């Protein structure tokens, strides 16, 4: 059944919703759906969200504290990272919807500190980052994760073939002006 053929008459609750969920639940979804990085297992602050449509979960996102003490000119205590964004196979259309909902509702709901900005990384070899660009995010750099630069001196190099190895683009959304830029 395609999204155009959904029978919404039998749904007792709203046809769509954005809900906070446990990190374990989001990680299970992300794993089941085959996200190339796998689950987010950072040992610090995290918060998870899901998008349900017609009674099924179609997307999940995990917010996390940044690994680096500063990102895009912001201190760790001012920024939240979109550590994972994944949609259910066959529901790729939900990626844009989930990104926007996370940006507008999930990131600002970060429970650990007031958020001045949100960041996300995209793997340059996997995709050019159009999802962020078309949503209004600013690309700060296309060299994040490069083997040289400010993080190269303290970061342990990832082994060949590791899914997070290689250059990434760093994307930034600033909330400094009430969400409008």
Q: Which labels suit this protein?
A:
two-stranded antiparallel ribbon; 9 strands; 31% strand; alpha+beta; 7-stranded mixed beta sheet; Aminopeptidase; 181 residues; 15% helix; globular
Write up what this structure looks like:
The chain has 181 residues and is an alpha+beta fold. The longest helix is centred in the middle third of the chain and has 13 residues, at 94-106. A hairpin with a 2-residue loop joins strand 4 and strand 5. The protein has one domain: 3-Layer(aba) Sandwich (Aminopeptidase), CATH 3.40.630.30. A 7-stranded mixed β-sheet has the order 1-2-3-6-7-9-8, with helices on both faces. A two-stranded antiparallel sheet has the order 4-5. 15% of the residues lie in helices and 31% in strands. The chain has helices spanning 23-32, 94-106, 130-133, and strands spanning 16-21, 46-53, 56-64, 70-71, 74-75, 79-87, 117-123, 138-144, 168-174.
């Amino acid at each position: 059944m395609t999204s155009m053929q959904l029978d919404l008459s039998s749904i007792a609750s709203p046809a769509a919703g954005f809900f906070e969920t446990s990190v374990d639940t989001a990680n299970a979804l992300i794993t089941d759906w085959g996200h190339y990085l796998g689950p987010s297992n950072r040992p610090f602050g995290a918060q998870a969200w899901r998008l349900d449509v017609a009674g099924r979960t179609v997307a999940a996102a995990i917010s996390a504290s940044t690994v680096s003490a500063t990102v895009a000119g912001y201190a760790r205590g001012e920024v939240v990272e979109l550590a994972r964004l994944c949609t259910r196979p066959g529901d790729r259309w939900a990626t844009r919807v989930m990104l926007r909902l996370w940006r507008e509702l999930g990131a600002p709901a970060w429970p650990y500190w007031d958020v001045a900005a949100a960041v996300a990384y995209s793997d340059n070899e996997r995709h050019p980052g159009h999802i962020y660009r078309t949503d209004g995010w600013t690309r700060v750099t296309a060299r994040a994760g490069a083997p040289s630069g400010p993080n190269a001196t303290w970061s342990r190099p990832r082994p060949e073939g590791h899914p997070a190895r290689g250059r990434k683009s760093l994307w930034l959304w600033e909330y400094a002006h009430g969400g409008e830029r």
